Amino acid sequence: MSTILSQPVDLSDSGEQPRPQESRKRLLLVSYHFPPVGGAGVQRPVKFVKYLKQFGWDVSVLMAANPSVPVFDNSLLVDIPEGTHLEKTRTWEPDYKLKKNMAQKQEGAQKVSLSGSLKSSCKKVVKAGAGMLLQPDAQILWYPNALKAGKRLLKRVPHDAILATAPPYSNLILASKLKKIFHLPLISDFRDEWDLSSKYLENHQRDRISDLIQTRLQKKVMRHSDAIVATTKASTQRLLDRAEQFGASPVGQCIYNGYDPDDFDTPHESTSTYSPESGRKFRIVYTGTLWNLTTIEPLVRAIEAVHQSQPAILKNLELQVIGRKTPEQREILDRLNQTDCTLICEDYCAHHEALKKMAAADALCLLLSDVEGADRVAPAKLFEYLAIQREILSITPAGETAGILQDFWPEGNFRASETDKLAHWLVNRLSGQTVSPMPHPEKRDQFQREHQAGQLAELLNQLVHHRI
Questions:
Q1: Full residue range of the structural domain in which residue 273 is found
Q2: Residues 343, 223: one domain?
Q3: Which of 50, 141, 221, 339 could disulfide-link 92, Cβ–Cβ 3.0 to 4.6 Å?
């Protein structure tokens, strides 16, 4: 039977008294994405690496040497402790720019002619075939070289455990194979549930055969995992239930995403208290990807409602949207051009720059679409939003994220269907209504990255001790 661990972790002396060298242990982290790769998904593994050292664990990282990714962020390299072993090996994937150019050419071909349409159809067939072969994801093309490199490393340097973080889920397939060969304890860290990713990720193969393949691969991973870690309590339980269906019985641990106080050491630009007479606009900032699981439609709908009732007041509103946007989300944002709201859209920026933009906001926007499974999701940015201590405007379904926010910013906590309430909140803020400060800010401490690394270290120690 699967169980969830919830042991407290004592952090009081973690920084001052590292474990003696002879008692230190070593972890192999399997993470296709690792700095200088950027993006929200990189924060979790790199912060684990940064802080595990304080709990007696040194880390080797098995990573892609030429990852096919849209963004890089060299500012994240500062978080990698000196002496961390980075085992880099090449993937056979095409360069991301090449993939993007091919996708753009396909879109253009659809609009040119009948022959262009035929070519587009052929490309779709080829793409579908490739998707069928590349299971569970395109990063499986990294697997052959990564497996060789991982085997060489584990033969050369003794390790005590393996941790793989996903997505991409190819990380878990690779780690399962290494666990089978070297008989080391394996922790599978699910930043997103496998089934949810299969359901909602863009360009993900959706057909019966692919579903069967994905299920078989997931079963294999669950059976090889000694422990399953997820980013919410509900998600942890869901994954344990899934493991039990597969006849597996790993232990489970919820380790939330979080924030690193070191990221906030540099003073950020702070906004003066907004008022309609202040000579500036009320600034709402959203950071992150806009796609079908984080649609901005409810906020746009509320702004349109204000436009119908009090159009002039929208001259005081500035909405900054920072991050990648799908074409559908861009179309939704374009509707704001019919209002007096000032819309500022930017693509990805470095993590430290994103933090500055958050600090300069009057309110930070958090979005989760009202779809099946979203109640079990807690976006990584939530915890950095809490660290910034700006009011949070959240539009999420009832669930774990809404529950966390209820302790901090209950007034700005809405459901997607509550257009009138959202519009009322906007009017109040644009009119200069005073906002109460965050109650009990000390409650944020449980979400510090150091604390979470301590949770992971405790789990690792238990698995290693049990193995011995």
A1: 262-446
A2: no
A3: 141
Q: Which residues pair with 63 in a beta bridge?
A: 88
Question: Around 436, how many Cα atoms within 13 Å sit in the side-chain half-sphere?
Answer: 9
Angle between helices 297-309 and 327-334 (to 10 degrees): 10
Q: What is the DSSP letter of 265?
A: -
Euclidean distance between CA atoms 8 and 282, whole angstroms: 41
Q: In this structure, which amino acid lies at residue 243?
A: A
Give pTM, 2 decimals. 0.89
Give the CA count within 13 Å in the CB-facing half-sphere of 60: 20
- Do 280 and 195 share a domain, yes or no? no
Cα(366)–Cα(389) distance, integer angstroms: 14
Query: Who wins on pLDDT, 363 or 264?
Result: 363
Question: Which residue in the block uniquely carries the two structure tokens 């459901």?
Answer: 415
Render 346-389 in DSSP notation, one character per residue. Answer: E----HHHHHHHHHT-SEEEEE--SSTTGGG---THHHHHHHHT
DSSP run (H or E) holding 88: strand 85-89
| CB half-sphere exposure, 155, CA atoms < 13 A | 7
Tally of structural domains, the chain = 2
Instruction: Say if residues 62 and 460 touch (Cβ distance below 8 Å).
Output: no
Identify any residues that bridge with 3 across adjacent strands, giving them in sequence order.
Answer: 251
Comparing C-alpha atoms, which of 31, 21, 52, 16 is closest to residue 450? 52
**Backbone phi and psi for residue 20, each to the nearest 5 degrees, phi listed first:** -55, 150
Q: 384-440, pLDDT tens digit by residue?
A: 999 999 999 999 999 999 999 999 999 999 999 999 999 999 999 999 998 888 988
Helix (H) or strand (E) holding 251: strand 251-254
Q: Which amino acid is at 113?
A: S
> Residue 92 belongs to a domain with what CATH number?
3.40.50.2000
pLDDT, tens digit, 9 for 90 and up, residues 252-296: 999 999 999 999 865 555 567 899 988 899 999 999 999 999 999
237: left (phi over 0), alpha (psi -120 to 50) or beta: alpha
Q: Which of 271, 221, 262, 211 is nearest to 243 (CA)?
A: 221
